[in-house]
Design brief:
Layout lengths: L30 E5 L6 E5 L12 H11 L27 E5 L2 E9 L5 E9 L10 H17 L12 H5 L13 H13 L10 E3 L2 E4 L2 E4 L5 E7 L5 E4 L4 E3 L2 H8 L1
Antiparallel strand pairs: 1-2, 3-4, 4-5, 6-11, 7-8, 8-9, 9-10
Pfam family, one: Kinesin
GO cellular component, one term: microtubule
InterPro entries: Kinesin-like_fam, Kinesin_motor_dom, Kinesin_motor_dom_sf, P-loop_NTPase
């Protein structure tokens, strides 16, 4: 699977140019069909009726952002079991990013003219999929990581990059008893071991895990007391991390134990 992100950015000008996702007239909200992971049946889920409200929007730029968002048709990727989080009302910064639909990210850039008149430069970026802060890890996994399991079992390589999203990859880290079962790690492991139950894979494949950390240009083995690892390019041009420790896993719980 090739998840290539293509940036489409509008240019700055004294008057913010219209973006391709803005519709000035109110229209009926579309419905999103999400295949259920267990039986692949489509579940019809109504979309939220409007963009986020004025929470975390303050001052003149906050009002500009709110006015601009009121012109958008808001239809992000969602599902029926969203985990709603309370907004920190004490945060005096403006939330300058909005996900108006399933494949666009819109960034509000506050700017000033030469005469100090303030305005918003609203820049749009297009990706394969975009998600707002309300979606569950299960939904992100369904669109981003689950298709990669097919890639791996068909002989391909797959990589998931996650920048600064510990809860997304690991799970619920906020409670006293950490729950790793809903993180992307656990869900990928669940998908892999579920696939291994198929007759053609039961005796032919074994699963091993390695964990290493890249820090300040150096690589450390997390399964071997942070031993410094060497990284080389082989004769075929592929990067190899040498001497890293491998540990065989035979269940989802084995994976969760190693993560913990």
């Amino acid at each position: 699977m090739n998840n290539t992100a293509v940036d489409q950015t509008s240019s700055a000008s004294p008057v913010p140019p219209p973006t391709p996702i803005v519709e000035q007239q109110p229209q009926p909200q579309p419905q999103l069909q999400i295949p259920h992971p267990a039986n692949n049946k489509a579940e019809v889920v109504p979309e939220p009726p409007s963009p986020p409200t004025s929470a975390r929007l303050h001052g003149p730029f906050g009002q500009m952002i709110l006015d601009y968002r009121s012109t958008l048709t808001y239809a992000p990727i969602t599902n029926s079991n969203l985990h709603h989080h309370e907004t920190n009302q004490k945060d005096l910064h403006n939330d300058v990013i909005i996900i108006p639909n399933k494949d666009h990210c819109l960034v509000h850039v506050p700017k000033s003219k030469v005469d100090l008149t303030t305005y918003l430069d609203n820049q749009t970026f297009k990706f394969d999929y975009t998600f707002d802060e309300k979606v569950s890890n299960e939904l992100v996994y369904h669109y981003i990581a689950a298709p990669l399991i097919d890639t791996m079992f068909n002989g391909g390589n797959a990589t998931v990059f996650a920048y600064g999203k510990t809860s997304t990859m690991g799970g619920d880290l906020s409670s006293a008893k950490t729950d790793y079962s809903h993180g992307i790690y656990a869900q990928i492991a669940r998908g892999i071991f579920h696939r291994l139950l198929q007759p053609q894979y039961r005796t032919s494949l074994e699963i091993f895990i390695t964990f290493y950390e890249i820090y300040c240009g150096k690589v450390f083995d997390l399964l071997n007391n942070k031993k410094r690892l060497r990284v080389f390019e082989d004769q075929n041009g592929f990067v190899q991390v040498c001497d890293q420790q491998e540990q065989q896993v035979k269940s989802i719980q084995d994976v969760l134990n190693i993560i913990q």
